[in-house]
Specification:
With 267 residues, the chain is of the alpha/beta class. It is globular and about 50 Å long. It folds into 2 domains: 6-142, Fructose-1,6-Bisphosphatase, Chain A, domain 1 (2-Layer Sandwich); 156-266, D-Maltodextrin-Binding Protein, domain 2 (3-Layer(aba) Sandwich). Helices cover 36% and strands 21% of the residues. Strands 1-2-3-4-5 form a 5-stranded mixed sheet, sandwiched between helices. It starts with 5 loop residues before the first helix and ends with a helix. It is built from 7 helices and 10 strands. Bound molecules: adenosine-3'-5'-diphosphate and magnesium ion. Adenosine-3'-5'-diphosphate binds at residues 64, 91, 94-96, 161-164, 184-186, 205-207, 211. Residues 64, 91, 94-96, 161-164, 184-186, 205-207, 211 line the site of adenosine-3'-5'-diphosphate (A3P).
Length: 267
């Protein structure tokens, strides 16, 4: 039986889905990357859906792999999650592209619980990010420590999408004296901020709630800054699941990075 508390359950779910993904990867190999992506997405999604239905039958679920997941609900009859008090926001396989590439470890499983009664602005009551190929799970049930500050004089290391980096980031990096660190998966990038491998993660131009919910729950549990790139709070379980940009960083970097982002956001 899985653990009872929501935090520990999220940790368990993400870890088990991650083990399943490692098995799918080992069994299928990398000869057909497109088929491997589909098999991984489906296996992790079905596992999460089944276990959530079994152990949290009255909670709603928003999963990237649901047919209508990307739909924006403007009035009318929305899905149960819109009025639900508790919604699991899951990305069964974040960094699908990297999962299909041999040897890469920058892909993740995201499991977050949004709760209407949570007091934080993002209302994420629990979260877990499994990094199966890195053999670790970051989760709110084992609050990660705040990352160590790098030695003085070290350039700011800025994690950025490998495949869809925001166009303005090269100029922004020049402005603040940062180096860009391309990496796959929002979860893997935020995990790299949590463990101090990089100092910040900036994304813009498109993403959905499931791409950031679980990693943001873990990052804020560690005391890190997480917001939209204009400084507004990240909010979840909205009628439109698009959440196209974010900044996650050490708190001492939030003000200078938001200031540098301000002109780009307005542009
Ligand atoms: N412009 C965009 N529009 C929609 N989704 C985007 C996006 N840029 C990144 N993402 C999503 O954010 C996640 C991390 O992206 P990246 O690895 O490029 O940093 C990926 O999730 P999935 O792998 O779950 O699809 C990717 O699809
Ligand atoms: Mg994703």
């Amino acid at each position: 039986m899985p653990p009872e508390s929501d935090d520990a359950f999220a940790h368990w779910l993400a870890g088990r889905a991650g083990e399943l993904l490692l098995q799918v990867r080992a069994a299928r190999g990398h000869a057909d990357p497109a088929a491997l992506k589909v098999a991984g997405d489906r296996a992790a999604h079905e596992f999460l859906r089944t276990e959530l239905a079994r152990h949290r039958p009255t909670d709603a679920v928003l999963s990237e792999e649901d047919d209508d997941a990307r739909r924006s609900w403007n009035g009318g009859d929305g899905p149960a999650r819109i009025t639900a008090d508790r919604v699991w926001i899951v990305d069964p396989l974040d960094g699908t592209r990297e999962f299909s590439e041999e040897g890469r470890a920058d892909w993740a499983v995201h499991v977050a619980l949004w709760s209407r009664s949570a007091t934080s602005t993002h209302r994420l009551a629990a979260g877990a990010v499994a990094l199966p190929a890195q053999h670790r799970v970051l989760a709110t049930d084992s609050a990660p420590p705040y990352p160590p500050a790098p030695p003085d004089g070290t350039a700011v290391r800025l994690a950025v999408s490998r495949s869809r980096p925001p166009a303005f980031l090269t100029a922004l990096a020049d402005e603040v004296g940062a180096v860009l660190v391309p990496m796959g998966s929002a979860g893997a990038k935020i995990a790299a901020v949590v463990d101090g491998t990089v100092d910040a993660y900036i994304h813009a131009g498109g993403q959905y709630e499931w791409d950031s919910a679980a990693p943001v729950a873990v990052a804020t549990a560690a005391g890190l800054h997480a917001s939209r790139i204009d400084g507004a709070p990240l909010t979840y379980n909205r009628t439109d699941p698009k959440l196209p940009d974010l900044l996650v960083c050490r708190t001492d970097l939030a003000a200078p990075l938001l200031a540098a982002l301000q002109s780009r956001v307005a542009a």
